[in-house]
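User: My advisor asked me to double-check a structure prediction for Cardiolipin synthase N-terminal domain-containing protein before group meeting. I don't want to rely on an old file, so could you generate it fresh from this sequence?
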Amino acid sequence: MSPASAAAAVGGFTPATYDLVWTVVVVAGVALLAAAVVAWGRSTDRSIVSLVWFFVMLAFPIVGPIGYLVETRRRRRLQREEASADGGASSS
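Assistant: Sure, here is a fresh prediction for Cardiolipin synthase N-terminal domain-containing protein from the sequence you gave:
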């Protein structure tokens, strides 16, 4: 057995694609976390739910920020729909 194959068998060698995939996952996770924390910080909501979302984002660095950003977008869309429905009802 050659030294290169022995090192690969022991785990001393990681393929470049493996390193690349993990690097992309880590960078994407950090970017998602940063975007979600900035969105959380700019939010005017200071309820206990908002604080729980902050800790969820920190505890689950990929799923937490995605969940927070999706939930925030859904909540904003519902508020806009309610505001437009209220605006249409009051003008009639």
